[in-house]
Amino acid sequence: MTAPLLCTVTDGLARITLNRPQRLNAFNSELAHAWAETTTAVVADPSVGVILLEGAGPSFCAGGDVLDMAQSMGSGAEITALAGVINSGIRALVESPIPVVAAAHGTTAGGGLGILLCSDYAIVGSNSKLGSLYANIGLTPDLSVSAQLARAVGERRALQLVLQDRLLSAEEAVEWGLVAEAVDAEDAAAIAAAVRERAEAVAAFWLQGAYRAYGEAKRLIRSQPARSFAEQLSEEARMIGTSFDRAEAQARVAAFAAASAARRS
Predict the structure, then answer these.
(1) CB 51 within 8 A of CB 94
(2) What burial class does residue 48 get, using C-beta atoms within 10 Å of its C-beta: 0-12 exposed, 13-18 middle, 19+ buried?
(3) For residue 144, how far is the Cα from the chain centroid?
(4) Where would I find the H helices in the chain?
(5) d(C-alpha 6, C-alpha 62), whole Å
(6) pLDDT, tens digit, for every residue of 168-178?
(7) What is residue 263's predicted lDDT score, i.e. its pLDDT?
């Protein structure tokens, strides 16, 4: 039986692949539990410096598997419980001090938007489409969409997505700030490969740099709504002091100072 989710950790990079391509990587119970277990383990692994999210097959993630809901879910309570399982993985990624890049080729819809929003830097293909589509089947947003979408694109634009059956083009998704980049190639397969290649380049950039500082910068911004302005300033001050004491910062600060001195002499 094919695993619904794949994960490898190599040289500091954790690659998490949603692996239900025949269902556009939509979440059923098996994928939900694998997602929760894997993400929780990855963020707790001290060897992991960067996380890359991707989907197998033609799309990134179509959200929840509606066919599976109709055939095997007997009540709303079961849906709520399953969403809670997936949410634990979402929280693990969003609340961790590890930067996350998403290679989101193809379609991202429904709860897939929430999975996309777990990333701190998202890349799509020029042929990608992104939307909500919950109301089309009488459901409401889940998997962090209502929690994260408005923060990413603004309240009015978030409402446009969840109150219509609109699918954003890649160009619109970049313009709205939902994703960072859109890449192009000659056909769908080449676009998917280009999206992954670009996501890998972003991950490599972080790993080659001071990835702990990138991760803590991500944490400061992600966790800011829980603090007052004064508390945020205090946390910033604490964190820059902590960062300064790290060996990677000491070496980089010393190199910067030396380079500046050489330019002045």
Answers:
(1) no
(2) middle
(3) 11
(4) 29-44, 66-72, 76-95, 112-117, 145-153, 155-162, 170-176, 188-208, 211-223, 229-244, 247-264
(5) 17
(6) 999 999 999 99
(7) 87
Q: What is the pLDDT of residue 207?
A: 96
Q: Are 169 and 161 in contact (CB under 8 A)?
A: no
Tokens of 59: 């799309």
Query: Helices 76-95 and 211-223, interaxial angle, to 10°?
Result: 130
CA distance between the termini of the chain: 66
pLDDT score of 71 more than 90:
no
* Higher per-residue confidence, 53 vs 247: 53
Q: What is the pLDDT of residue 91?
A: 97
CATH number of 5-208: 3.90.226.10
DSSP states of 16-32: EEE--GGGTT-B-HHHH
Phi-psi category of residue 106: left, alpha or beta, with phi > 0 → left and psi -120 to 50 → alpha: left
| Three-state SS letters, 123-181 | EEECCCEEECCCHHHCCCCCCCHHHHHHHHHCHHHHHHHHCCCCEEEHHHHHHHCCCCE
Q: How many CB atoms lie within 10 A of CB 12?
A: 17
User: Cα–Cα distance between 251 and 144 in angstroms, integer?
Assistant: 39
Length of the chain: 265
**How is the chain split into domains, by residue range?**
5-208, 211-264
C-alpha dist (Å) from residue 45 to 49, 72, 102: 9, 34, 19
State the DSSP code for 58.
Answer: T
